Amino acid sequence: DDNAAAAKPACFSSVIPGWFSEMSPMWPGEAHSLKVEKVLFQGKSDYQDVIVFQSATYGKVLVLDGVIQLTERDECAYQEMITHLPLCSIPNPKKVLVIGGGDGGVLREVARHPSVEHIDMCEIDKMVVDVSKQFFPNVAIGFEDPRVNLVIGDGVAFLKNAAQGSYDAVIVDSSDPIGPAKELFEKPFFQSVARALRPGGVVCTQAESLWLHMDIIEDIVSNCRDIFKGSVNYAWTSVPTYPRHWGYWIYALSSKSNGPLKFYNSEIHSAAFCLPSFATKVIESK
Ligand code: SAM
């Protein structure tokens, strides 16, 4: 493709010409590739490189620092699960905080919960929000909900200043722990989350892959077991374009069904906590 060839950022054509290859020190030795039809946007924000391209088979794709954040085809599996797992675990969540999530997809899902009265979102990079509004209207639709209060800033600082016990649920929809999201994986951050949650509140965070990042998952689980007095669990989903999944940390767990969604249902909710034996062994030992 001429357009892709002309653009030539590092993640294009280094494996197969005309394709995007996702390479990262987070998954050394592997590179998931998608055929590029057209590069739609390339920019550099204060925090990261931002690319949007039209892929041959997954619709439009958002890439930050060379790493896929979402594709139109499979984003539902991520957004629905990271949102409804926590929000269906507590009765009538009213005040919700989203950290990261600049594409708006988690907001779209939070907005489906009629009990929710207020949604704060703190995303560090305004360019992600703007690009999503321009290229991913079905995802960025979440920003249109009148309950949303968008703050552009660092999620770590936002949580430090949040009023104690003020949120029913916190959803951390972060990128990987290299770059601006690094601190979102560290113990002090989870301590601030615990402070900002009301008793019985719930937090759900993107916690990478069972196959690749057991060391990261172990650290998060053990930090959260120290900090949160209720239950701490790890749940997973299947997103074909992610080499990673996320973890799920809660104070209290109960489940209820929720509307006609594409991916999430109550059976998937339960099944997401069924883990391979190697993961159960590590997580239960923490
Ligand atoms: N679903 C995605 C995934 O797992 O690949 C994550 C998508 S979302 C676009 C991740 C967002 O987290 C990015 O927009 C990034 O700018 C934001 N982010 C990273 N570090 C942050 C921080 N310290 N505070 C707030 N937002 C942050």
UniProtKB/TrEMBL annotation:
Active site: D173 (proton acceptor)
UniProt keyword list: Polyamine biosynthesis, Transferase
Domain of life: Eukaryota
GO cellular component: cytosol
GO process annotations (BP): spermidine biosynthetic process
Classification via Pfam families: Spermine_synt_N, Spermine_synth
Gene Ontology molecular function terms on file: spermidine synthase activity
Domain PABS positions: 17-256
Family: Belongs to the spermidine/spermine synthase family.
Name of the featured protein: BnaA07g09800D protein
Organism: Brassica napus
